[in-house]
Every structure is written in C-alpha cells, then in structure tokens.
Specification:
The protein is mainly β. It is built from two helices and 21 strands. The strands form four sheets. Strands 2, 3, 4, 5, 6, 7, 8 and 9 form an eight-stranded antiparallel beta sheet that branches. A seven-stranded antiparallel beta sheet has the order 1-18-15-20-12-11-10. The N and C termini lie far apart (38 Å).
Length: 304
C-alpha cells in the first residue's frame, strides 16, 4: 500500500457505527489521536461510550445538545454552533477522560479525541472566548481558531484548532514537522487534518465542485508522500514528516480541523520548518494581511 493510500482517506472511507468517519487506536499505525465526524438529522443521536479518552465536541454546521456523564453526575450542554465552518468560530465542549456522552441535534459535528487516563475539569467554551489568530500575510494569510491549544484549554493530551484559508491562499506553510522530541524546539505530535471546502460567498458554483490541495513529504522520522485534491469530508493523517502546504483553489475557500497529541511528557505544540523553505516567513514582513479576513457570520451571509 502506498503512503497516500495509508494516510489519506476520502469521505466515507472510514465509516463506522453510524459515524461518517472514525479515526482511533483501531486505525492501523495510529496511536495518540482520534476524530469522529457525523451528520445528524432531527431525532438522530450518537453515543460516546469509551471512557479512556478526552474529547472536544466541535459543531461544524448546526447546533447540538450533549448529555455528558462523569463524576459526580450528569449534565446537558447546548452547543449553539454556527451556519458553516466558514462563519467564524463556534462554541465547543471539552469532555475529560472518564466521560460518556450522547450527542443530539441537526447538522454536522466533529469530535476530536486523544486516549489518556489523566483527568481534567469539563469545560464549555463559548465562541466569544475562542482566541482568533490572523496568521501570515499576503497569499499566506489565514484565520486560526485556537480553542483547544495549550494557551486556551487545560487538557491532558489534546491540542486542537481549526483553520480557514481564503480562496487562492496557502496555509500550513512553510512546510513543517513535529516528529522529534527536541526540548524547547520541537515536540512529537500525530496530526489529523479534517477538510471542508466551499465556493466563495456569492458564487453560483456548486459545493460539490469545490476543492483544495494538500501535501506531505518524508522526514528522517519516516516515509510519507501525499499530494491530494481534497474535498469536504476528506481526512489526512500525518504520523510524521513535513506537511504543507494546504492550498485553497481559486474560487473556493478551504477549512480544516487539526487534532494533535503525542507521546512527549509535555503538552506542547513546537514545530520545525523545512530549512529549504523557512525563509518564506521573513518575506511576509513587507506584505499586508488579506483584507478578506476575518471570516465571520456577517461576511459569509452570501454563501450558499
């Protein structure tokens, strides 16, 4: 099996137990992270029964109610959600290890996971409390929602964020890696990319036509080679290697949810750029931020 077949999966390839896609420890070669994605209609529900994982429930589109059970009782949390992943940040729910839960609602939902026996307090994070970072400049401008990073959330292992890349822009760039433990410089983290794409606001193009591009390549830690056209629902797994760029095609915006965790004792997100391309960061100094950012519900009202 080629590395792209092993580590890149089209929408539905990983369907299991009522979920559109599932990545977890049962996935060959995978150990530290997981993701579940589903589309729910009114009256549908999905159960989260494994106790030895921590989770972040992320509405992609629509709103949901999560009933969660953990010491010392049961709670129900409403996630107000959003119209789409391009409408700015959403509220999310962090559930610690030892929790079981049931999700009801209408729309698309993702659950980021990491196996751990360490416990933390459960936490509801409203959209207004999500740190929004406008990263890069020029054609490398993108919008990052850092609701699950070490600076924003006290989790045991999980590091989670989401990125919006406007049409024609590049993100996950320069290509970088995090597959070695170099204290203070680089940490070992598996990473999941879950993608969505859509025509730019006001376009008459069909959602099915929208796409982006994603690339990974080998590092001393392992052989990997992905150069894929990505569409909504596709998933790329990055166990090691340099990853990036993620490119939004002209006419189509690109979104991805990143889920990271690893074996290092410290929960840290430390990366090393590919030395051949690291100089690109300095080129941003004389460029302006893309004026289309930030994406909010107001700026995306024309989207079909």
């Amino acid at each position: 099996m080629s590395t792209d077949q092993c580590w890149f999966h089209r929408k539905g390839d990983l369907a299991r137990d009522g979920w559109e896609s599932v990545v977890d420890q049962a996935t060959p070669g995978w150990e530290h992270t997981g993701i579940r994605v589903a589309e729910l209609a009114d009256g549908d529900h999905l159960d989260l029964t494994e106790k030895g994982v921590e989770r972040i429930v992320v509405p992609l589109a629509g709103s949901f109610h999560v009933t969660h059970h953990h010491f010392p009782g049961e709670w129900e949390t409403r996630l107000h959600g959003r119209a789409s992943v391009f409408a700015g940040p959403t509220d999310v729910l962090y559930l610690p290890s030892g929790t079981t839960a049931e999700i009801r609602g209408h729309g698309r939902v993702a659950v980021a996971e990491a196996p751990t026996d360490e416990t933390r307090a459960w936490q509801y994070i409203p959209a207004s409390d999500t740190p929004v970072e406008l990263r890069g400049k020029g054609a490398s401008s993108r919008q990052v929602h850092n609701f699950g990073t070490p600076q924003a959330l006290d989790a045991a292992r999980l590091i989670v964020c989401e990125v919006i890349t406007p049409a024609e822009n590049w993100s996950s760039y320069p290509p970088h890696k995090h597959d070695e433990n170099v204290p203070g410089h680089e940490s070992r983290l598996e990473e999941i990319y879950y993608f969505e794409t859509a025509p730019v606001a006001g376009s008459d193009a069909s959602a099915e036509a929208s796409f982006g591009m994603f690339s990974t390549y080998s590092s001393p830690a392992g052989e990997i080679d992905i150069n894929a056209m990505v569409r909504s629902g596709d998933i790329a797994l990055v166990p090691y290697g340099y990853h990036g760029p993620a490119v939004a095609a002209p006419g189509y915006d690109l979104y991805y949810l990143n889920v990271m965790a690893g074996p290092d004792p410290e929960r840290a997100w430390l990366i090393s750029d590919d030395p051949a391309h690291a100089w690109v960061r300095a080129s941003w100094d004389d460029q302006e931020l893309d004026p289309r950012l930030p994406f909010t519900n107001e700026t995306q009202k024309g989207r079909r």
